[in-house]
Amino acid sequence: MDGRLERAEEELAHLRRALDDLSDVVARQAREIERLDRRVALLMERAAEAEAAAGGAAPLADQKPPHW
Q1: How many whole angstroms separate alpha carbon 46 and alpha carbon 25?
Q2: Average pLDDT, the chain
Q3: Which of 12, 38, 59, 60 lies most in the core, judged by the most C-beta atoms within 10 Å?
Q4: How far apart are CA 68 and CA 62, in angstroms?
């Protein structure tokens, strides 16, 4: 009986460690996604500014496609 309890405690310790590791990975990925979202927004803003400076018309992102 004592051996089963020790094995269960060891397994629980391994599962807790795995959970902590996965939690760290998820947190790191969330930070990376936030960083990439900011960069995409900045790039979209720069592209819209460049389109406006080049043609003076509405940015292509705001125009309806020709088939509409």
Answers
A1: 32
A2: 89
A3: 59
A4: 13
Model confidence pLDDT, tens digit, residues 36-53: 999 999 999 998 888 878
By residue range, what is the domain housing residue 39? 2-46
Q: DSSP characters for 6-64?
A: HHHHHHHHHHHHHHHHHHHHHHHHHHHHHHHHHHHHHHHHHHHHHHHHHH-S--GGGSP
pTM of the model: 0.64
Give the count of domains, the chain.
1
